[in-house]
Inverse folding.
């Protein structure tokens, strides 16, 4: 994301574009997945020292103004991603239960017919959450991807 589009997103959300807010935005924009606040903090800190609380407050502000999406995952830290960067108000996610990677899938909105369905609703839709849970290709290849227990209890073999 360049400086101009970052500035435009913040402006449209009525958020003053401070250097830290731009950096938080850039940290999310550079990913095709939802990232934790800690990952965002590390990315922002690469550019210079910043208070953890400032980054957390920035994320709260972004969520409040609809710039960022916040996702709660069982047993994992909260994840954040941008809505606007994908060029649509909402997108779907694929979540790997093994490694915790949460991929943003902007194309799925179209493929699943979500946009058309939303338009057919007599409702002012403010958000859509569709999460596909499973085991990602990398984890499956690593051999820890079986959804059922690797050693069935009844098998009697090691
Ligand atoms: Zn995985
Ligand atoms: Zn996302």
């Amino acid at each position: 994301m360049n400086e101009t589009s970052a500035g435009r997103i913040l402006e449209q959300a009525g958020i003053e574009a401070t250097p830290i807010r731009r950096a938080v935005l850039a940290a999310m924009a550079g990913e095709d997945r939802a990232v934790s606040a800690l990952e965002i903090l590390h990315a922002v800190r690469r550019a210079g020292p910043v208070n953890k609380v400032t980054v957390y407050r920035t994320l709260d502000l972004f969520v409040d103004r609809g710039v960022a999406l916040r996702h709660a995952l069982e047993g994992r830290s909260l994840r954040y991603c941008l809505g606007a960067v994908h060029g649509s108000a909402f997108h779907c996610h694929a979540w790997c239960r093994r490694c915790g990677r949460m991929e943003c899938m902007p194309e799925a909105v179209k493929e699943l017919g979500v946009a058309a369905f939303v338009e057919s609703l007599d409702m002012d839709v403010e958000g859509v959450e569709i999460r596909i849970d499973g085991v990602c290709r990398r984890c499956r290849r690593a051999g820890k991807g079986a959804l059922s227990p690797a050693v069935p209890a009844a098998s009697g073999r090691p």
About this structure: Strands lie at 35-36, 68-71, 79-82, 92-96, 102-105, 131-134. The chain has two domains: 1-87, 88-145. The helical segments are 3-12, 19-29, 37-45, 52-64, 106-111, 114-120, 137-141.
